[in-house]
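Predict structure. Chain length: 616.
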Amino acid sequence: MLKRSLIALSLLTALTGCALDGDDGQQGPQGEQGPAGVAGTNGSNGTNGSDGSNGTDGSNGVDGKDANRLLDIQMVGRAVLNAQSPEGAAEIVAYQASKKWIYAINSSGDSAVVNIIAADSFDAAGLVKNNEGVITTTNLSSAITLTLNDNTPGDANSIAIDENNQLLAVAMAAKTTGENGQIAFYDISDDAPVFIKNVTVGALPDMVTFSPDGSKVVVANEGEPEGDYSVDPEGSISVIAVTNGAVADTATQITFTDYNGKQAELEAMGMVFANPTGRTINGKLINTTVAMDLEPEYVSISKDNRYAYVSIQENNGLAVVDLSDNSVKLMGLGYKDWSNLVMDASDKDGKINFKKYPGLYGMYQPDTIASFSWKGANFVVSANEGDGREYFFDATDAADCTAKGGLDFDEDDGCLSYIDESRVEDLTLASNFSYLNNDDDDIGRLKVTTVKGDTDNDGQYEALYTYGARSFTIWDSNGLVVFDSGDEIARITASVHGAAFNNDEDENEGDTRSDAKGAEPEALALGQIGERMFAFIGLERMGGIMVYDITNPYDVKFADYFFNRGVVEGADITGDLAPEGMSFVPAEQSATGKPLLIIGNEISGSIAVWQVALKD
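Prediction complete.
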């Protein structure tokens, strides 16, 4: 009671004080703000949940269907060059968008020619499937034959077209080993190509390409040796300037002599060097430098025209040329670990026989490469074919071959001067391979290099390195693997072809290539369809084309597989065999209004034109 009384007295005193001070009395209305305390109803902010209506944006997922990876692929055009002797009649192809012409190198005859085929219309009725579902008929034919040797001696290896200046460039290799080759230039702005000039480049120009803006021509000069290594020219890269449509008279030569003496350093980076250094062959002591051993194979130039990427196949490397100053650096590609992937390593096991092989590695050894950009960064895509070295020279018989320092004599090929290849069953394996029988049922038939794997030089191989990676790979500008297709090519083709899996390019006998690089990814082209970027990988042995969506190089997806080849065991080979070169045609440059993929097939001598579009 005392406590309540004191409180009441205090309140009374306060109220009385207010009554005596009129000004304070005006503060009373402020008391009415008390109801604002009811703002505790802020809980009503929960109505913000209505923002959940943004969830309707989820309908964008439907857009995802529009950008799906399902493709509508159909052949719309086909030609066969030199049907009587087709091998080599259609290897490398190019496309002139301004005229809708296809150009194809034809090396099947006595002289080098380029066949030009009109692709401004396609008569679908001309393409008929046989009882295997294979198209063997044609609806395209050569309209113009460009006889290259009228202006340039040698053999044709590669062609490229520049739409900016309407120029054709043809890489012509000299007939004599070690002699410099030439790039033959033609004006293709008129009704027929007109020869302009030859520009001398390095030894054995194997591939030529224009920069996207047409200001430069870059050439990979492979520089292969003579059969007895008596002549072994240096590999090199040539750069030819094109200024206001005018081709320079001379090329800038980029060599690798600065890397001589650095072989160990390059090997530590993941490069490979295989040659008979230290041996005497045909009376000559062989001493191969790094520059002599390097063999540039293929060129791709970044879309910003700044960098030329050059595959160095046999050496398992990549050269990067900064075209702003022609400086060059080498990058080793390293090795693919097969311990957690599966491979059919034998052509004699009579079945599809996928196994894991700890201790087995693949040398990527890319042939064709291409480049694209993502998020402003450059990426390189490689078809990892693989390639070894095997050279012969003339000898009268086995005794003459031995006397000249040869390794073996063959009636057809002659005296073997050098080979870096062996079957695993012919090697002595270290104890870490004790899980193997090393016979025809596992790894015994597999072809591997002899220059790597015996880490302590005791005659036993602690590791095995096989040719190629049986895959395609995306690399970043640092030389790091962003994506590799792993063992998918083999598994997909095995699922599709069954017993015909790993057929060879010139016969129908399943499992033939399991011991030697498998389906052998060699050809490669990139193309944008809608908003998606796709990689097309040509399998030289199986004849099919793998398609991957690489729009995001960190989220690559298999999209499709297509082919036009008969695979019936023992039957004659039919269709399109050994895709060697490919050219992608964007929809806006195509006669059909949809993207095209043009493929040159080396063994069948055929040019196949496929229409490739996103399904509706």
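Summary: The chain has one domain: 71-388+467-614.
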